[in-house]
Amino acid sequence: MGSMTGTAALSISEVALENEQLRLALQAAQVGTWDYNMETGQAEWSVICKRLFGLPEDASVTPAVLLEQVHPDDRERVAHANARVLSPQSDGDHNVIFRTLREGSAPRWVQAKGKTILNDEGRILRFNGVVIDVTELKQAQEALQQSAEVLEQRVAERTQELKEANLQLKKSNENLAEFAYIASHDLQEPLRKIQSFGDILRDQYESQLGEGIMYLERMQSAARRMSTLIKDLLTFSRLSTRQENTTTVSLTDILSHVLHDLELAIQETGAEVTVESLPSVKGDASQLAQLFQNLVSNAIKFGHPGTKPVIEIRTERITATDLPLTIRPVRAVAAYQRIDVSDNGIGFDEKYIERIFQVFQRLHGTSKYAGTGIGLAICEKVVVNHGGSITARSQPGKGTTFSVYLPL
Prior knowledge:
alpha+beta; 12 strands; 10 helices
């Protein structure tokens, strides 16, 4: 008996010690507690609980007194939460955040969390829980919400600005296209008259012009170059403003038509052109034809004098992860078709790689190699319109390979 009494006494001491440790821990954490006996109607409110409700430590407290300390804007919501948890249909869980009034200072945000304890018949015996100060957390949430609202407003304003800028750009592009068409038509007409009258002078008065025929031929040559330049500028402006017509097109068919159009140049130079079987892609057939016509005609034009141009067109399917680091296609997809157009021509120094795709940029003089300096700019624009990328590898005197990457 003595041993059992000692054991029981020790257990009671341990429980008392644990309760004291719990009380000290709650006090250190500034956590208030309450315990409401539903059978006797008595309640215990900790000092910290009273303090969080703005009450003195020796205040006589009842549920009604605590409710009076709730901010008027939150009082109805808290009363409803209290009534709900004490109703027979309740799940017994209580969790509500509200403001309490504190004399001489701003209201504080608190969170009350509790649980009801039932007897065997399901009747509520006790209702207890804790109260913690969440003012700093609520202030942080409100500051974050305000920041989010300010950011959302700025995003909305910026989006509207971008929409307006896009509309202005669209209108500007439409005006540019109209201007390019009118300008090309108005400029071509006087050029045709210059060429026509020049032809008449040469045909009817060549014998009387003497050395003047040389100046006439130079004038005609300049008029032809200007006519070509105007046509190329018009092509470039249309590529910059025209809506892409996306359909599935066969690159093999496009190259076949391109080589047919370049048949005379191929025959005159004796060029040897080898084309692999090419895939179909989604795009604009006329733009893609312009792209490959410019690349093949360049390969023919920039050949070594007296050497037969040898041109190879190869293709390879590559995944996005295998793209070279310098290649950044406009459209991100899982795979791309790379088409290489290689030649054995005069080549160029790769330090000019960015320059060659700019309008009016030429690496070789017009006296030896004809052109307007717009062809490769057109190529890049076509590739960009199709969501891809274009680059080149070359060495002076050792040929050039243009690589076109088109999304699949």
